[in-house]
Amino acid sequence: MVQIMASSRLVARMGRRIKLRDLHILLTVAERGSLIKAAQDLAVSPPVVSKAISDLEAELRARLFDRDRHGAAPTAYGQALIRRSVAVFDELRQGVSEIESLADPAVGEVRIGGLAAMMAGLLPAVIGEMRLQYPRLTVHVTQVLTSPAVYDNLRNRTFDLIIGRLPTHPLEGDLVSERLFDEPVSIVTGLTSGWAKRRKITLSELIGEPWILPQRGTEVGSIVGDIFFANGLPEPTAPVVCSSIEMYWGLLATGKFVSAMPMSLLNFATQRNTIKRLPIQVKTRPAPVGIVTLRNRTQSAAARVFIERTRELTQRLR
């Protein structure tokens, strides 16, 4: 009880010293890189913006921006306050959304970053099922690439969650992951291919066939390359190298190509009936697929519903 009272007094003092309007001005200046441009966006005069920043600096006893004729760049102190300010406004937005959800649980929105394979298979399946129960729910989906920088989209609250292959290295402390299933890879071809009728095939028999492969040096390229390495085979010279799932479907449907595809696509993609999974045992270790979120961030009701539905739909893949 004493701790709660002390915390309340601290919040009251901070509320008198730093106002949301000041933080809004701070974020606008950081985004625009200029006090003048920020003033234009906020429809106020430049002196108003300058005074708000100066008052914050005086209150915090720290310089928040380095200013020159080229604009304003946040200092280390400014970056620290900007990160926290983003979190403040995100929590407010989540609070408003949650209040709306109390009146109608089907109202809300969730922002998702998805890797390419998820965009073509699992995510459409999850959204399709959710649509039946929550027709007023809005889902914002953006395709992302695998890289350490992708998780900055969680830190700046662009995404509520990112779904796809989990990184092989440990995540930074402010992130948390949940493994959904392990994603093996299968060798596939089109239904009209002569290989589709064979009951017994070895990977070595396909080395000379026209392959569709991902770019070397990418994470997906490494996963596919390991298939040949594990079988003691050289990676074939592919006539088609691309990262577009749509291109894979189109070329495989001709029956003239072979390729490797993740299990989730073969289970959820609407085009799955146009290809044949070949009877080849792939020896590589399946890559884990899961959800990454920001630790200690309160998820909206819509995000929680989405995560729960994804768990249910991927249950059989485990």
If you had to describe this structure to a student in words, what would you say it looks like?
- With 318 residues, the protein is α/β, with parallel strands linked by helices.
- It has three domains: 2-84, Arc Repressor Mutant, subunit A, CATH 1.10.10; 104-182 and 288-317, Periplasmic binding protein-like II (D-Maltodextrin-Binding Protein, domain 2, 3-Layer(aba) Sandwich), CATH 3.40.190; 185-285, Periplasmic binding protein-like II (D-Maltodextrin-Binding Protein, domain 2).
- It has twelve helices and twelve strands.
- The protein has helices spanning 2-17, 20-32, 35-42, 46-60, 76-103, 116-120, 122-133, 152-155, 219-230, 245-252, 263-268, 301-313; strands at residues 65-68, 71-74, 108-114, 137-143, 161-165, 175-183, 185-190, 211-213, 240-241, 258-262, 275-277, 287-294.
- The strands form three sheets. The protein has a five-stranded mixed sheet with strand order 4-3-5-12-6. A five-stranded mixed sheet has the order 9-8-10-7-11.
- β8 (211-213), α9 and β9 form a beta-alpha-beta unit.
- α2 (20-32) packs across α3.
- The longest helix has 28 residues, at 76-103.
- It is elongated.
